Structure formats: structure tokens, C-alpha cells
Amino acid sequence: MKAHIPLFLLALICCVKATHFVVGNPALGEFDHGENVRYNAIPFIKRVKYYFYSQPQNRKIVAIQALDNLHTQSSVNVTAGGVGHSFVNLRLKSDRGAGMDYSIGIYVERLSY
Predict the structure, then answer these.
(1) Does the residue 95 lie in any domain?
(2) Buried (b) or exposed (e) across 93-108, using 16+ Cβ within 10 A?
(3) C-beta atoms surrounding 67 within 10 Å
(4) Do the domain assignments include residue 3?
(5) CA–CA dist 61, 112 (Å, integer)
(6) Closest to 88 (Cα-Cα) out of 44, 51, 56
(7) Which of 21, 29, 49, 105 is least enclosed, having the fewest CB within 10 Å?
(8) Domains in the chain: how many in total?
(9) Mean local confidence (pLDDT), 74-92
């Protein structure tokens, strides 16, 4: 019986592992832009897509969230801009043979009056 407990915990950890990408602190800013990015799977192929966002009022980005809705082993990287800039370029790469479904949220600095 005791041997089954570590095996169960290992299986549980493997099943719920997802690759969420969060940079910065969303509580420090206000939500500015949200979008769902979806791409279909192609068997045996890794999908690579780029996401570009530019803040029209040149307010600085304080946080970026990319939440993996499919809970796959896909990855997200910032290729340009990001926190402290008014733009961001993200590179999304799927797991081999898997699709992508990310909820992307951009938070910018609050306006002070």
C-alpha cells in the first residue's frame, strides 16, 4: 500500500503540469489587452507562432500573462520588449503534435492624476 502513494503522487504531478507564463505583477497595473491565441495541431510537428502587441498610448507594460488552456508542454518566450516597454513580442511554441490555446493578458501602468 505504501508503494502506491508515491506512484500516485508522481502520476498526479505529471497530469496537472502546465506551462503558464507570467512576467511582472498584474496587481501593480491595470488590465489593458486580452486575446485568445489558438492553433490546430499538426501530427509530428511543433508549431511556432509569434504574437505582437504595442500599447497605443505608450504606457509601460507592468505584467504579461500567457495561460495554457490545453495544459500541454508548449512554451512562451519574450523575444523583444516586455515589462518596462510599451510593446512586447512573444514566441509561442507547441509540443510536438499538439495544438496551442493560450489566453494572453497584458497589464499596463496605472494612470496617475
Answers:
(1) yes
(2) bbbeebebbbebbbbb
(3) 17
(4) no
(5) 15
(6) 51
(7) 49
(8) 1
(9) 92
